[in-house]
Specification:
The protein has 439 residues and is of the alpha/beta class. The chain has 14 helices and 9 strands. About 8% of the residues have low confidence.
Length: 439
């Protein structure tokens, strides 16, 4: 018999992104879009035996470094290939470095052939359950010894079977199933099993957060359906499985706020609020464009600063050939070469997503923007060529030739074109973006 419906937990929303190794910059850009769209969480698959995927924890570290408020987790960590003590230290370290923005999704393992090929064990269901139980204890004991995370990291278990659900109720901080494996009509029965185990262990069912990996939907009543999952089955964290920018934006800007309002009204005992047609907002999605541009301007200034240090002799030109990797920027040990290359990739990725998604959307929304978008597209090609010039000059500097003047000239040309481009784009597109969105 069902005892608990809404556990009253705070609502959270996030994304479940594919760690595609063939498009690494795009994965990071989608995580940045997740944060910009107002979502709290970005998560990634952890399948170390999948050669098409980036390493989940390397990706998590990169995303944490590029965001300011976004929380990040594996969805879920492959325990058989992640020794618990090492995993605990990694999580604690990243949590400290990000000031408390890491959570730990954890699984007992699946796809055992792949795990064995990577040198991991092949476990029976009972062995996997026992190893997960021991692994959770090891992780928590490691955190007690130190290093300790910056906040109380939650351990979310990807559980489906009865014994795994009981383990979740007994020791887990959250239950993280996927809609494709655990359909909504089965949530009640599984929640009951978790609740029973929690109570038997002297815990409250409310101590176990209910998360759900959900599939995208075009249904106009999608928000109502998600709100019902909260009020009927206690789901408090919805993680959307998609790599589509338009869907991420809609989820953050339209769907999540609607769910929050519906749930808040129901919890307060009032009627569901009417949802007016969206109005343009000053500082809306156009504000995100300015944020991205400001980051690009700041990064460009850093490149100039590094080149100026070499030219001014702050870094001895005679030693530059051998010690360039020791250069320090933003209190990180980044080489000038790696930094400039990273900046070039950042600009190129930003422009690729604009040209492939944002510009077609704006053309369809307002045909009068056609000439503006044509000019911006042409400028993207020009800037791409200037970035290649910077790369060529950079190679010459790193190889030890006297190419600093050529590098300075290349960056000067890039700065002029990029600065003018960013200003024109903001002047022409902030208003339309606030009205029509990015995608």
């Amino acid at each position: 018999m069902r005892r608990v419906s809404d556990y009253g937990q705070d609502l959270q929303f996030g994304t479940f992104l594919t760690p595609d190794a063939s498009h690494p910059d795009r994965v990071v850009e989608l995580a940045l879009l997740t944060e910009a769209a107002g979502l709290e969480l970005a998560t990634f698959q952890d399948h170390p035996y999948q050669r098409r995927f980036l390493d989940a924890w390397a990706l998590i570290a990169t995303v944490l470094a590029r965001t300011s408020s976004l929380r990040v987790s594996a969805n879920v960590t492959n325990l058989p290939l992640r020794p618990p003590h090492v995993l605990a230290t990694t999580v604690a370290s990243l949590d400290l470095l990000s000031r408390g923005r890491v959570e730990l999704g954890l699984g007992a393992g699946a796809f055992w052939d792949g795990i064995v090929q990577m040198g991991g064990p092949r476990r029976t269901p009972r062995e996997a359950l026992h190893a997960l139980d021991e692994g959770i204890a090891t992780v928590r004991a490691t955190w007690e010894r130190g290093p300790a995370p910056a906040h109380d990291v939650e351990i979310w278990l990807g559980a489906i079977g009865p014994r795994m659900l009981e383990l979740t109720g007994r020791v887990g901080d959250g239950w993280l199933p996927s809609q494709s494996y655990v359909p909504p009509e089965t949530l009640a029965e599984r929640n009951d099993r978790i609740d029973d185990a929690a109570v038997a262990a002297g815990r409250s069912p409310v101590d176990v957060r209910r998360l759900y990996n959900v599939s995208p939907s075009d249904d106009p009543s999608w928000a109502e359906w998600l709100a019902d999952l909260t009020l009927t089955h206690g789901v408090s964290t919805f993680i959307l499985g998609t790599d589509d920018p338009a869907t991420i934006q809609r989820f953050g800007v339209e769907v999540a706020p609607a769910v929050r309002e519906l749930v808040a009204a129901a919890r307060a005992g009032g009627p569901a609020p009417a949802r007016p047609a969206p109005e343009p907002e000053a500082g809306g999605m156009g504000h995100h464009l300015v944020d991205v541009h400001d980051h690009l301007r700041a990064e460009l200034a850093q490149v100039f600063d590094v080149i100026g240090q070499v030219e001014a002799g702050t870094l001895d030109a005679g030693r530059a050939r051998g010690v360039i990797n020791e250069m320090t920027m933003r209190q990180n040990d980044w080489t000038m070469g790696a930094y400039c290359q990273s900046y070039c990739r950042l600009v190129a990725t930003h422009h690729t997503i604009e040209s492939s998604s944002m510009f077609p959307h704006l053309r369809a929304s307002d045909p009068s923007l056609g000439p503006v978008l044509d000019r911006l597209d042409e400028e993207h090609h020009t800037i791409h060529g200037l970035l290649e010039d910077v790369d060529r000059a950079l190679v010459a500097v790193v190889s030890g030739t006297d190419a600093l003047p050529a590098l300075r000239a290349a960056v000067d040309r890039l700065a002029v074109s990029l600065t003018e481009h960013l200003s024109y784009e903001e002047e022409q597109l902030i208003g339309p973006l606030d009205r029509y969105g990015f995608y």
